[in-house]
Specification:
Layout: H1 4-18, H2 22-38, H3 56-72, H4 79-93, H5 100-114, E1 117-124, H6 131-143, E2 147-154, E3 161-166, E4 169-174, H7 175-189
Length: 191
């Protein structure tokens, strides 16, 4: 089973060991992931689609293409980009490149956790307006987070109230869930 968390942690450790910026590595990994998907099959593009014939030769071809392109543009890789490139090539070699998006997402989550950033998704039935900033402040107070990134989603099925998702935890303060609980309670009392 593919362990995106292991790959992400190894990438972060590699970048830190090299003295690079993790955000720089993540951005370069995104570029590499989008780039390899556009390559023709004979250049290694088929490996992004999950072909099981990946390996050392594909990684070597891709490394040559990437390094030639960088040299041609008179650029140099930062330590974060170099670590991202090595991770990318290892994923091609180990036939794990089809999971690159998972590694990128997990790396972002680990970086956010390290930096005290909490990602919160809020679903609402009515516009939350100023309540968004109050929600952020309350979460910051309760969690000691440095920053709260709030993503808002309109969901008319909630009828009223809101539903928060913080990592794997869901806080459901919607009218719909309250009505469901009331219905369940009344159904149980009727027996």
């Amino acid at each position: 089973m593919f362990q995106s968390g292991h790959w992400a942690a190894a990438l972060i450790n590699s970048i830190e060991r090299e003295g690079g910026e993790i955000e720089d590595g993540i951005e370069f990994l995104k570029v590499l992931a989008s780039w390899v998907k556009k390559l023709p099959a004979e250049s290694g593009g088929r490996y992004a689609a999950g072909n099981s014939a990946a390996g050392s030769s594909a990684a070597q071809k891709l490394e040559k293409l990437i390094r030639d392109g960088i040299t041609k543009n008179n650029e140099a890789l930062s330590p974060g980009q170099e670590s991202a490139l090595r991770t990318f090539l290892l994923m091609v070699q180990k036939n794990a490149i089809r999971s690159i998006e998972q590694v990128i997402e997990k790396t972002k989550k680990l970086l956010d956790k390290k930096n005290g950033v909490i990602a919160v998704s809020v679903e609402y039935a009515l516009p939350i307006g100023d309540n968004g900033s109050r929600i952020k402040e309350e979460i910051k107070k309760r969690s000691a987070a440095v920053r709260v990134d709030l993503t808002e989603h309109y969901n008319p099925d909630l009828i009223g109230g809101y539903r928060l998702r913080i990592d794997d935890e869901i806080i459901d303060a919607s009218v719909r869930s309250q009505l469901r609980r009331l219905s369940d309670h009344l159904t149980m009392r009727s027996y």
